[in-house]
């Protein structure tokens, strides 16, 4: 792996994102979203449903083109990094998937593959993949059937949904149902034997995410 390459810092880029959002979004709207994140941080401190040492629940889900993608078949090629995210409408999801894309060469150099999963319909997954030129699989997990085996599922707050609608973002456009069910973001690394070797979530505050460097450090240590 190229030691001289600058690995993106999600934390630093999040600060820049929040500064940018403050210039684009009314303060009242930002307060609604901030309150939502703070409440979730207090309510959800340990969302993970599986731990290091557990066997990873296997799955097969459609990708952005509607083709079935099997975790087992990916594991036959080597370790797999799985990240669960909320949706295209979430700026922090956009930011973190973009940062993971930028370390994809390092992930692959360490013999692993990356998969991102959300409950969005395939068309929305395709939008996400194209918008950020993502070169890894972006899968659609209808009704969070897979996500609920790995992390906690919550209902996106009506206040946040309504506030986003005022800003021109219709939350429901991204999904096939009106449940408002979304996963608490989390990252898992599964070795080629199907065992979870890394399981981490920063909790309910969706502005906090697993750092790219954390992923690379675990892959390097388990190679």
UniProtKB/TrEMBL annotation:
UniProt keyword terms in alphabetical order: Antioxidant, Disulfide bond, Oxidoreductase, Peroxidase, Redox-active center
UniProt cross-references to Pfam families, sorted A to Z: AhpC-TSA
Q: Which domain of life is it from?
A: Bacteria
Q: Where's the Thioredoxin domain?
A: 50-223
- What Enzyme Commission number(s) does the record list for this chain? 1.11.1.24
Q: Which reaction does it catalyse?
A: a hydroperoxide + [thioredoxin]-dithiol = an alcohol + [thioredoxin]-disulfide + H2O
What's the family? Belongs to the peroxiredoxin family. BCP/PrxQ subfamily.
- In UniProt terms, what function does this protein have? Thiol-specific peroxidase that catalyzes the reduction of hydrogen peroxide and organic hydroperoxides to water and alcohols, respectively. Plays a role in cell protection against oxidative stress by detoxifying peroxides and as sensor of hydrogen peroxide-mediated signaling events.
Q: What is this protein called?
A: thioredoxin-dependent peroxiredoxin
């Amino acid at each position: 792996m190229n030691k001289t390459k600058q690995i993106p810092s999600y934390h630093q880029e999040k600060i820049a994102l929040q500064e940018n959002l403050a210039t684009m979004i009314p303060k009242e709207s930002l307060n609604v979203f901030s309150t939502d994140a703070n409440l979730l941080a207090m309510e959800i401190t340990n969302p993970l449903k599986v731990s290091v040492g557990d066997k990873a629940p296997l799955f097969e889900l459609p990708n952005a083109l509607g083709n079935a993608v099997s975790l087992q078949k990916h594991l036959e090629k080597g370790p797999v990094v799985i990240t669960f995210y909320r949706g295209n409408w979430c700026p922090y999801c956009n930011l973190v998937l973009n940062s993971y894309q930028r370390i994809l060469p390092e992930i692959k150099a360490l013999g692993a593959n990356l998969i991102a999963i959300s409950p969005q319909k395939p068309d929305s997954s395709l939008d996400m993949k194209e918008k950020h030129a993502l070169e890894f699989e972006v899968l659609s997990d209808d009704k969070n059937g897979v996500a609920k085996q790995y992390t906690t599922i919550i209902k996106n707050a009506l206040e946040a949904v309504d506030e986003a609608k005022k800003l021109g973002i219709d939350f429901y456009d991204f999904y096939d149902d009106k449940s408002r069910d979304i996963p608490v973001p989390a990252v898992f690394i599964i070795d080629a034997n199907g065992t979870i070797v890394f399981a981490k979530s920063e909790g309910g505050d969706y502005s906090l995410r697993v750092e790219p460097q954390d992923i690379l450090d675990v892959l390097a240590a388990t190679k």
